[in-house]
């Protein structure tokens, strides 16, 4: 009987160890840690035309993983020797769709676990878009070709300081501007170019016994910095430059006659900042604020003003 008892004791001990090991193995299998999202080799990436406008849509898919809260997808386009980010999207699906121009791209998909922690270090994967877009698509950059641009619009004048503007009304609503230039230099930091910027404003003042008028016109040569905003249909433009500003046909009209007309030419400098939006293919709207300083030698005060502007243009 003693032998049987010892045999039963060994069996019970073995069963207890099996239960303990089984519970441990089960707890490890239920650990909600996840691995990085993997590529889906079955139709991982393809393009198809959208029915309503014929624009090509790119479809990017990947293999899902367990215990995932969401995925973060980052896509970058190759520009010169580097890459620029063109899309960053969070999704609970295992695919995304977008519409980009042709070129070389790379992407990575980062999985986040149930505690919103990134899992692993997702690798970059390359892909190429060769479809030619027949028209505008939301994700397509709007700075194609040799990047020549031309625009025109409305630009009133608001005086800031200087005795010249003391002679006229506070705000001068008749005003216009134009821009002609190109943006040949592209970097990861932004794009750089040059432009010619002619401008004109009509200065007036009316009193009971006289009326004064003059044309304030000039042209600046500006250096241009342009930075794209996702999804690359919008840009921030910063300009800095200088040139010549003229005061033309400055005279007063009285009840019994007109004063002698005077003209003046001065060196001027300025800076602009604007927001630009490509609303259809190569056409864009632009609005911003310009500051100009007129250097008047021999005068106790210099002259300065701001000019809000809004217009439309084309960039090819």
Structure characterization notes:
With 316 residues, the chain is mainly beta. 9% of the residues lie in helices and 58% in strands. The chain has one helix at 2-29; strands at 38-39, 45-49, 56-63, 68-79, 82-91, 95-98, 103-113, 125-129, 148-154, 158-161, 175-186, 191-206, 210-229, 234-254, 257-258, 262-280, 283-295, 303-315. A hairpin with a 4-residue loop joins β11 (175-186) and β12. The longest helix is centred in the N-terminal third of the chain and has 28 residues, at 2-29.
Secondary-structure element sequence?
A: HEEEEEEEEEEEEEEEEEE
Roughly what fraction of the amino acids lie in strands?
A: over 45%
End-to-end C-alpha gap: 100 Å
User: Which residues form runs of ≥5 with pLDDT under 50?
Assistant: 1-36, 132-145
Give the C-alpha Rg: 34 Å
| Overall geometry | elongated
Give the count of helical stretches.
Answer: 1
| Helix percentage range | under 10%
Q: How many beta-strand segments?
A: 18
Mean pLDDT, all residues? 81
Helix/strand class: mainly beta
Tell me the quaternary state: single chain
For the largest sheet, list the strands in their spatial order.
9-11-12-13-14-16-17-18
Biggest beta-sheet profile: 8 strands, antiparallel, barrel
């Amino acid at each position: 009987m003693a032998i049987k008892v010892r045999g039963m004791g060994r069996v019970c001990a073995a069963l207890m160890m099996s239960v303990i090991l089984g519970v441990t193995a089960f707890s490890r299998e239920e650990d909600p840690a996840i691995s990085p999202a993997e590529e889906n080799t079955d139709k991982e990436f393809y393009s198809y035309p959208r029915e309503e406008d014929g624009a090509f849509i790119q479809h990017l898919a990947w293999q899902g993983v367990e215990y995932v809260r969401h995925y973060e997808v980052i896509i970058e386009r190759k520009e010169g020797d580097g890459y620029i980010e063109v899309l960053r999207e969070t999704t609970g699906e295992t695919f995304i769709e977008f519409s980009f121009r042709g070129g070389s791209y790379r992407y990575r998909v980062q999985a986040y676990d149930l505690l919103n922690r990134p899992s692993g270090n997702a690798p970059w994967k390359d892909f190429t878009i060769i479809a030619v877009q027949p028209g505008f698509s939301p994700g397509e950059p709007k700075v194609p070709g040799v990047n020549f641009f031309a625009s025109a619009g409305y630009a009133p004048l608001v005086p800031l300081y200087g005795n010249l503007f003391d002679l006229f009304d506070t705000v001068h609503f008749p005003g216009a501007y134009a821009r002609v230039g190109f943006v040949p230099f592209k970097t990861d930091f932004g794009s750089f170019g040059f432009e010619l910027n002619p401008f004109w404003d009509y200065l007036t003042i009316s009193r009971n016994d006289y009326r004064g008028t003059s044309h304030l016109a000039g042209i600046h040569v500006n250096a241009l910095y342009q930075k794209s905003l996702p999804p690359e249909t919008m840009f921030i433009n910063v300009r800095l430059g200088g040139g010549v500003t003229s005061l033309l046909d400055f005279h007063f009209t009285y009840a019994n006659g007109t004063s002698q007309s005077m003209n003046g030419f001065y060196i001027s400098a300025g800076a602009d900042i604007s927001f630009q939006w490509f609303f259809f293919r190569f056409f864009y709207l632009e609005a911003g604020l310009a500051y100009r300083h007129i250097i008047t030698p021999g005068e106790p005060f210099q002259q300065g003003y701001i000019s809000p502007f809004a217009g439309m243009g084309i960039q090819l």
